[in-house]
Fold this sequence. Notes:
The structure holds 2 protein chains of 2 kinds.
Chain A: H1 2-24, H2 36-43, H3 48-62, H4 64-79, H5 86-95, H6 102-116, E1 120-127, H7 131-148, H8 153-158, H9 166-202, E2 207-215, E3 218-225
Parallel strand pairs in A: 1-3
Antiparallel strand pairs in A: 2-3
Helix pairs in contact in A: 2-5, 3-4, 6-9, 7-9
Chain B: H1 2-43, E1 47-54, E2 58-66, H2 68-94
Antiparallel strand pairs in B: 1-2
Amino acid sequence: MIYAAAVAVIFIALTIYVQRRMAFGAFARRPRRVADEDLVKVLLDLGPESLEELFGLYGEQFGPGAARYARRTYLKWKAGEVRPNSRTFRRLLLHLPRVMSFDLKCEVLRRFREEFCPRDEHWLRVRADDWKESLEPLVRSAVEKARTAELPAPVARRLRWLSEGEMQAARAILAESQAREAADALSMLQQEVATVERLLAETRGRGRVTHRLKLPCAAVTLVIRERRRHGRGARRDSTEEAEPISADGGRHR
Amino acid sequence: MTKKAADEVVRLAVEKRKAEYRGVAARDEMRNLIDNANLLDRRGGDYKINSTFETATGTTNVEIRKSRQSTVVTVAAVTAALAAVLLLLSFLFLNR
């Protein structure tokens, strides 16, 4: 009976572990089967200015009728209500890049990197006083990953122009930019954790806070708890005490 | 190419500034949330508030709850678990 109980406990623990890993961990990578419509959808998710430039070029290359149709249908393509045919795919993603400006091509590359470069998912339980030690290695690895990330082979094979000629340099610029974004996020998080700590202190143990940190090649879900108590009767340094959040975002004095 | 690199530096600075604004707005909203929770506290009774904030670096989810019933349930569950462990241990030792 004891053996049965022990086996049951191990089984439950394993199930919880695998479920958590599947939700947040290494198993959570998205499957990558890239169809024409997926690529078109990502392209049409460009910012408004880039999209305007894209449709302008479309009109110049394929005539005003085709441009009108594309403008009319693009929301349906984006929502997946209408599947773009292979001619639309060729026009948008194989023909137009030959006449796109370098800036527009960079924006397209940025969107494709955001969408298709592998993204790690992490889940961490931290305290307000030890989050940095736990998080720093993950951010460092995200920075490194952003610098070296490549588009998956199926995408790169279909859109060769994304990795040819001047786009190699564009890739290096964007990768460096993503790496800096990740590093900036860590410095901004410092202030956010301080705010969360004050919130936890003011709600006197009734608050529960989860923060999802978005990084270019990773996402980290942090469950933030109050800092560790330093033993019964021990006082913390008064400068470390969490102060109330003021209406103007600073600390009450 | 140098121009593109310079553009990226500007873009990063703009994105950072936007993120800072989001952070300030989130702090204000959290302040309001705490005020609301304090108000509910003073009124007495159970409550649960769930809020999501777009912050500078991502999304923060805050849940504040006060529930006497859940405290009773937790205490009962812990007591039951302890009793089960004690029973198991006594069974183990008595059968030796």
